[in-house]
Amino acid sequence: MSNHCILCGKCMEVCPLLRATNREELSPRAKAELCRVLAENPGELSEVEAARLAGLCLGCGRCAEVCSQGVDVPALVAGLRGAHPDFKAWLWKTWLTRAKQLWPAGSAAAKLIPHAFHTEKLGPMLKMLAGMSGGPGLDPFVEIEKYPDTWRGERMLLFAGCTANFVQGRWLMAALKLLDGLGVDVISGDFACCGSGLKCAGFEEESREMAEKNVAVWREAGRPKIVTFCTSCLAGLKGYAGCFEDEAECTFWLESMFPLSIGLHDVRFMITDNLPKTLGYHHPCHAGKADPDRALLTTMLGDRLVAATDRQCCGFGGVMRLAAPGATDPVNRECWAALDGAEVLLTGCSACLAQLSATAPEGVMVGHWLEIMR
């Protein structure tokens, strides 16, 4: 795949890691070229050097979106990570595959660690862990007065995602309340994790097992629409390949994806008196150009949204958060610079929310857009 790179530089214009650090060796183009060299001369880099290179990619996918040659640098890096696993990769894999057991316990434990132990390196990670299960949440200020009849009576599966299932139950309850208002018949489905975090980290086999299970759940339910409210989960589900009976079923799967915000576009709503003075919105990298969450909030809030990101990445980076946390800091700072002035920040991605909650300036609240609905 890296052999197709023509070094045009389109990826250089959109890479948040390159823009924030100004280090060309971290650019997608450099990674594509290095992967080509490694493919042709496997001994060119040592095991340690290859593993270090594998850690330096946010996996945001912006470069793949603009590449005219179809080069997918995050996929190349994932392959490199899979070929050169290390302890941090194993730790990341364990964290994701045992989320039900580890996330609630890890979040509760992090809250008990005194602030004096929050070192420069560990502090942000501990704050992220503590915030996974959330605090009091946002104070709702959108009251839905009337739901459309568009989806009334339609059977749908709900893919809540690991964060809502294991540590942010209020998101799940809010989504179920909204679906009830829309008149949707929610079908029970025993979904696995979407697998995107494992795939990006190089654990292709484990990710594929999750994909195959989720597709099987969808088939057994009669191939209905699948409701999502996490941008990263939605991107992960859309990224399944090789799990379908034929091309027609693959197309049907993609057409079955149903972001919850799309179902709410025609609701009649009222903004209550406790509306925050200034609001911001973070556009997740994996939302792509079409972001239904942003469209919904723009309709509801209009010019009350005083700040929003577009090109900026939150700097979470999946396994890179463990492999090279310092390299993500400039990316995160650039993101918050674009959101300056917002006292409440909304987003629709659980990973972005974890990162932004852990790095938010003093006095800034961060929450999922579901939290603003009464």
From TrEMBL:
Kinase is among the record's keywords: no
Keyword Iron-sulfur part of the UniProt annotation: yes
Domain 4Fe-4S ferredoxin-type: 2-71
Residue ranges occupied by any Cysteine-rich domain in the UniProt entry: 157-237, 280-356
Keywords for the protein's UniProt record, in alphabetical order: 4Fe-4S, Iron, Iron-sulfur, Metal-binding, Repeat
Domain of life: Bacteria
Pfam families membership: CCG, Fer4_8
Protein name: Glycolate oxidase
Source species: Pseudodesulfovibrio portus
